[in-house]
Amino acid sequence: MSESGCKHFQSYVKEHSLDTYRILDAYFAACINKDAREKKALTCCCFECGSYGIQLFACLHCIYFGCRGSHIISHLRAKKHSISLELSHGTLYCNSCRDFIYDIRSREIAAVNRKLEAKDLQKSLTWTPWIPTPKETNLMLANPRRRNVKANETLGLRGLINLGSTCFMNCIVQALIHTPLLSDYFLSDRHECSAKSSMKCLVCEVARLFQEFYSGSRTPLSLHRLLHLIWNHAKHLAGYEQQDAHEFFIATLDVLHRHCIKAKAETESANKSSSSTATHSNCPTQCNCIIDQIFTGMLQSDVVCQSCKGVSTTIDPFWDISLDLGEAHGGATPKSLIDCLERYTRAEHLGSSAKIKCSTCKSYQESTKQFSLRTLPSVASFHLKRFEHSSLIDKKISTFISFPVEFDMTPFMSEKNNAYGDFRYSLYAVVNHVGTIDAGHYTAYVRHHKDTWVKCDDHIITTATLKQVLDSEGYLLFYHKNILEYE
């Protein structure tokens, strides 16, 4: 998008003006009076399926309402229309850019409409711009120095000391530090923890590490406190022998997840003592901690009975996806990440030796099982299963698996046609294992800026090219969602 905004919206305004937007926003987004609310209630539904869903779009080029996902997108594509208005929050969407867009003129119109709506309903505005208090103004005046982050800035880069076969931990920490949403969370000081438990809290330690990485210091950092906390809360990782980076990654997310829940419970408990309205849910499916917000997706498993074709569906959360690299039944081996995902989501015949009792026909029948992705996380992490362990031999699979810089996850979704949103992902970190299964070493490539990659080899940080990243063997791959939707 250019500095002047979306060129497609600029062309639309030049041809049609903002009159249509003004009316649609007033009657179907803001609902400035009783007449507007009645019109929205009676006429605002999807022209395709009749749905009165929570998120409808209005085409600004013609008279058409469509629900989010395939219906409004199909209309915009078929009619070659670009601009639509999302009616729940009054945001503009450009189908040509495949993104929500911002235009100052339309926001000024929307602001007037929101004031009219608030006045008619005798309510306060739900959002007002931040105006600094005298105290905040004085703080900014007393601290005028600001850090100017340049394109070649090394702020946020820091080597990590190897404490004795701890390269597995160093590379995972580098990947987590360079996870954009995680850095946004910790650098804005969002984590709250009581002073009593902060010394034992892994989340507090990670928050401290972010401060250390962005302090401006260039000396290598020791992770002894982090290692000690991990040993205390994940006993199977205790000891100075080389550990598996993937196992450490999952264990770290698990401990962070549990500590986030504990810190939230303690905070709410403290608040409850002074307020009888505080509530807390222990339901794990409703966890809204930062770890689940970023890393948790939902995996759908469909088991189809070969006799009655009845389908049994289960949905489970996941933090990452482990992908086989060995030969499939047909003798083919995957050559790319896409090959691995296609094999992972392919229907598998379970055979006569693994009959499952069908809930429909109430008998044991042969069946097929197929995985698909019900919902996708903000960060999609993939584990390429390079280590094979059996009773006869342990070996490493060093087959080269190509992986893209960007790719679309839509083909692997449970509902490909009705999936709402943009499912394009960009690579931002790669963890590699060099050497043998008995004597190996972990390193990581991380994206420091948009077009800048660096190689992290314990305390040594060097610049890297994108070709070096893509030519690497790849053990753990981290992708970040390009466009984030908000509920």
Automatic annotation (TrEMBL):
One GO cellular component this record assigns the protein to is: nucleus
EC id:
3.4.19.12
- Localization: Nucleus
Annotated ranges, domain USP = 158-482
Q: Which GO terms describe its biological process?
A: protein deubiquitination; proteolysis
Molecular functions per Gene Ontology: cysteine-type deubiquitinase activity; zinc ion binding
Q: Residue limits of the UBP-type domain? A: 4-120
Q: What class of enzyme is it?
A: hydrolase
Q: What is its main location?
A: nucleus
Output the Pfam families linked to this UniProt entry: UCH (PF00443), zf-UBP (PF02148)
* Reactions catalysed according to its record: Thiol-dependent hydrolysis of ester, thioester, amide, peptide and isopeptide bonds formed by the C-terminal Gly of ubiquitin (a 76-residue protein attached to proteins as an intracellular targeting signal)
| Keywords associated with the record | Hydrolase, Metal-binding, Nucleus, Protease, Thiol protease, Transcription, Transcription regulation, Ubl conjugation pathway, Zinc, Zinc-finger
- Extract the PANTHER family matched here: UBIQUITIN CARBOXYL-TERMINAL HYDROLASE (PTHR21646), UBIQUITIN CARBOXYL-TERMINAL HYDROLASE 22 (PTHR21646:SF33)
- Can you tell me which family this protein belongs to? Belongs to the peptidase C19 family. UBP8 subfamily.
Name it.
Answer: Ubiquitin carboxyl-terminal hydrolase
**Where does this protein come from, organism-wise?**
Stomoxys calcitrans (Stable fly)
* Top-level taxonomy: Eukaryota, Metazoa, Ecdysozoa, Arthropoda, Hexapoda
